[in-house]
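User: Please run a holo structure prediction.
Assistant: Happy to. Please share the sequence and the ligand.
User: Here you go; the ligand is pyridoxal-5'-phosphate.
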Amino acid sequence: MNINFPSPLQTILLPKELAIGSLMVKRDDLLHSEISGNKARKLLDIIKLPEAELPERIVTMGGNRSNYLHALAYLCCKRNIPLKAIIRGHEPTEYHKTLSDLVRWRCEIEFVDKLKFRDLRDNSNAMKDLLSQDNVLWLPEGGSTLSAINALASGVHEIGAVVENEPDYIFVPVGTGATFLGIVKGVIDLKWQTKVVGVVAIKDASYLRNWIDDWANTLVIDWESHGQLEHSFAEAGFGKINPSLLERQLKYEHLLSCLLEPVYTTKTMDALMAFAERGLLKNSDVVVWHTGGLQGRVN
Ligand SMILES: Cc1ncc(COP(=O)(O)O)c(C=O)c1O
């Protein structure tokens, strides 16, 4: 399976009225047609695993619009690994594209209510029965493991290979926080002064700080020296899509000359624009990270 590393770093021609020094997009959405964006980096271990070492089965969990589940289901279908996905919430009466692709790619789906989902996620004992068979690989929500975080840092090294000066800001969407932390790690690896702005897509996600702290402690990095989380752009919450959000998505797509989706990348652009309006980016070199997920695009 071919992933098109390194992803392009595209320079955007900015209209004069935008108070931004310079803007570039890290096009991870172009890494692969189905395993796009941060998912191509997060799932790299499985993409590269030799045939003889593949697990007999993978079990994972996520929301019913999860781009990560979508990418993993495609990968498991191509590599002939049986996949079970535990999905939060009731089974919808009509399957949208993300879910119908999961079925097409032979993913076994179990819908569980929010309480059970939380129990499975936060209490590893609850998982024991599911994982009692040999050679079952458990992947947490979002595929957010320490090895995924390390793989995400490689994207920053790709930027380092093509720019003269480090960017002042990198804007990136946040679901579990693994992608954000991987980018912070890359910035710290390169000894850059860059500030990484993580734009949280989920409402009331105060628990994120604990998750990020735990990973950062294990990796021995001081994430707050280079990273900040922005919680005020989550709108009504994850997956709640309204006409104003879609209108802004179209406006940003025009500015960046590429497609976006409403849940993550559009909200990240909202934050970038708000920073620009506050005059914070006037003389700054800014990178916005395109994390893919375009099968979830609505227009
Ligand atoms: C398009 C997109 N952007 C951002 C994220 C957030 O990534 P993370 O869970 O690593 O914070 C996701 C989730 O995987 C995603 O699908």
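Residues 160 and 166 are 7 Å apart (CA to CA).
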